[in-house]
Task: structure prediction
Amino acid sequence: MSIIHTDARGTEPFDKTYSLGYEVHHKDWSPFPRINHLRQTFLDRPYEVDVERLRLVTEAYQEHEICARKLQCAYAFEKVLLNATLYIDDEELILGEIAAPTKASPIYPEFSVNWIIDEILHSPFEEREHDQFYIRNDEERAEIIELCKYWQGRTVADRIECRLEEDQIKGSEAGKKIYQTNLYHFAGTGHLAIDYAKLLEVGFDGLLKEARQRLSELSMRDVEYGDKRDFYEAMIIEHEAVKKYIERYAKLCEDTAAKEADAARKAELEAMAVNCHQIAGGPAKTFWQALQLFNFATTLIQIESNGHSISYGRMDQWLFPYYEADMKNAVISKDFALELIEDVYVKVNNPTKLKDKGSMAVRNGRGFGGESLTIGGVDTEGNDATNDLTMMMLEGSAHTRMMNPWVCVRMHEKTPYELKIKVVECIRAGYGHPKLYNDGPAIKGMMRKGMTLEEARDYCVVGCVEISLPGKEYGWHDAAYVNTAKMMEMVLNGGRCLDCGPHCMRWAECGALGKHLGPDTGSLDTYQNFEEVLESVDKQFEFWTDQMCSSLNIIDNAHRELKPLPYVSAFYQDCMNSGHDLTEGGAKYNGTGPQASGMATCADSLASIKQLVFDEKRCTGAELLQAVKDNWVGYEKLYALVNSSKVHHYGNDDDYADELFKYMFECYTRHIRGRKNPRGGEFSPGVYSVNANVAMGMNTNASVDGRTKGEAISDNMGPVHTDGGSHDINGPTAITNSLTKVDHSLASNGTLMNLRFPEEAVAGVEGRDNLVSFIDEYIAKQAMHVQFNIMSSETMKAAQKRPEDYKDMLVRVAGYSAYFVELGKPLQKDLIQRTELHF
Amino acid sequence: MPQKGIIFNIQRFTIHDGPGLRTELFLKGCPLRCEWCSNPESWLTHIQPGVYKTKCISHKKCGMCEEACPNDALQFYRGKLIGIDRGKCTNCLECYKVCPSDAVKQWGKEMSVAECMKEIRKDLGYYERSGGGVTVSGGEPLMQSDFVSELFQACRAENIQTCCESTFHAEWSEIEKVLPYTDIIISDIKHMNSEIHKKHTGVGNELILENLKKIAGKDREMILRIPVIPNVNDDEENIRATADYMLKELGGHVRTLQLLSFMRLGEEKYASLGIPYRMEAVKVNRKSFQKHVNEIAAYFNSRGIHCLVGTKEKQ
Result:
């Protein structure tokens, strides 16, 4: 195998080892004291709720009640930018928040308010079990409620709710949670990456010039003349406001500099003022200005809407010309370039988002989430695109080790050796970044969405794992979470929930009337052969994806009608050219991407049915049905058997079960793919759950794979783990072989795979090289995505305390591998000690 | 005639017995009875049942194994299966076949070379990228030398690297069947004094040392290991004698000497077989013992022998 090399080196040796696994109380990973200070200051701050945006937006809408919706949005945006309080944190070099202080969440009443009022009154944000937010005082609490009341009946959520019908609601989060469309029902859509390269080149003045030009060229014979005029005018109001907003920051820098006693800091503040003056309207002239413009442009997207996963595209690519020029002209040192990158890395953690408790359950975390930063990969010609910044962006990640940004490295067959080593050094440092994406299936997936090869090669990752085209695609990724395990309940029980009865909130309108939740497509006690079971799966999936996708289209239309996005639309060339807002389908590519969870739960359920009921006849379908209805109580033998190694399970490189996983994967993607959305685009399926599989499990009765009621369903592309045992027992190569028996590109909205290794497995030069080899083969087998967990002794101690959560953690003991929690306590202790010695 | 082997475990993705990523086949049967052995299920050549008592869901809820056993050999305590009366057990495995919960495990499985190759091929790409391959271990794989020979020939035919981890307590005629098809050799030197060797492993060391010398004489490189057991083989005299032997008898043929610090391993497997664990009383202060092992490694290195602690070949 030939090794491909690169000259890209960054600031440190490419094979520098950062650490092995997580280390507690380590505060100075960065070589820059400023960064360590900013990082710590961030961590020490509380999560607050800020009222300013809510106040200003409400005022603006009240002042412009009778006016086109796009202009209302523009006036509100303008009002916020001209009036929001601005801040400079000490020592920082990059400016720009989301119209709220660091780590404080603004409120976006345009989308939804009922839950805000309800939760403040009945289940305060401060008292949540996790993801708490703090309202500063009672006056602000009262003000929030008062302002929100104005919005009741006027929000995107209200519009959606008045249009959904019974069949659509019963399967949704408001019903039995077969699918959950919470995210865009209650908040903005986001999930995009803009064309930063163009912005840096032309600046806001360039965009304004283009908008004015287009406006002047509009034909009055165009039937959409009025709408398009509103669109350009709104865009012009907003981008003019942006210029003033950035000038306000310039003034703040100058005022702060005037008062600054420290000469070095004073010079920095003056330089920041110069930066702001330049980029308020003009293009970025330096690397520093490019990063400053990036941060303003990005945070402004988050001021316009609270859609999450506002991602940074291929940052090592679009930023490189500025780095190259500054280095060539000796404007900056390499070290200062890295310090700026790290400053940005800390900074992008600042935006936070107050979410409703339903969304919070499927999507933990107080950040906006999903701020993916893509590096590496091939260029539009198919050549490796690694450069110095690729390496430095990984260094910055290892030096900051924070939630954001979510660094994603695009891997391909020509990824250079030095980059692979740097990637693996970051991975085995155990902080969870970077995730790896595979150009092979990703590019194929992009082309399935109708893109040219050149476009497809320019993909980036937005959010968790969704592949998207910067500045050209509005993919509505992450559109809904689909609980396939709950759909499977309908397959088992004639379209009814397994626990159908008077305790159900829908009993009066459903079961009591003799109705079924879904269509009756047969049940486990009536199927005559396995083919009938598979047909039933297909019919249930068709019915529920019909409900879900039609609901999503209603949600989509509500966003178009009530919350257009003229500011961010300016960064989409096709919006600019056509006069159509992003929400109206102005982008070149328009998708909707709902994702499936619980695929392995379904696959192992089917394997149990096929093997035990039809092939070996060890039990009847009726028995198995009764067992899950009774949550396995009284069926302990059957429960043990379906969880044992005697039954075929997905994830073991066993074709019997893997074929059924493939059936499920293809069934889901087939029912989603190709459906039309109102923006002129098509639906695009994903197979990932992030952490939603846990909350979904809580709403799902026992399943035939050996899950008891309430346990998590299977995660992402991963195998089943139940309280009765882990179903994958053949190690990571077997899992990889199992999950690559499906064509990942069919899931053009992304797939996700978590793999976990103990530190021991990746220690030393040999461990590093073995992990590189493993990744190489994983990529060669055309899996789309992977991320690693490298276990620490802390984790092992936690595992001792809560063994039920760590059942499948493999530890390589010495001569053999074993499951950590199955070892005796003394050996566990010894392993923990040995690991610490290893550091 | 195509050979069949008795294999008690096929471990994919192993990284310790040989370079790179490997698939390791553990073969049943061993002439040694090392006190510190971590694989007691490997001792006997034939297939046996083992009991994992924590997995039993209770006699009351199940009882299928007792119903199936023709010899009344199963032992219960407080309603749960805890062991097998090996005097009565004929290893018919009826208990294993009916057990729904993995409480009865089957130690050992008869497999043909073709069946093994099917498993081995599943991870071909990983071997190629990492410089890995196939390792046979045990037990003592040379007790099934005809099978190993045929398996390794099959690997060679597909360009898969082969590694044999053996005690080399075997007749030379058995070794000769395997050696020509073996790329990497791993073995142990447990003690230089034959009497002490016999006391702790059940056999003297003469045959082993003679075989290693013969292998070196054929100009073959090997990876050697010392399982460092406190108060058994970690004294200065034995360490010096081991170094002397390696330098004098094995010449430059030891590519790496690996010191494996004693760990309490495999206790749960002893329990599954109802065999007492003989290292029960040995308590080790991990920190000072590790220091001691590091000093031994330093000594070997000072004698010009490339020596590392653990199953590594690179520092």
Notes: DSSP finds 34 helices and 22 strands in chain A. Chain A touches chain B through 46 residues (CB under 8 Å).
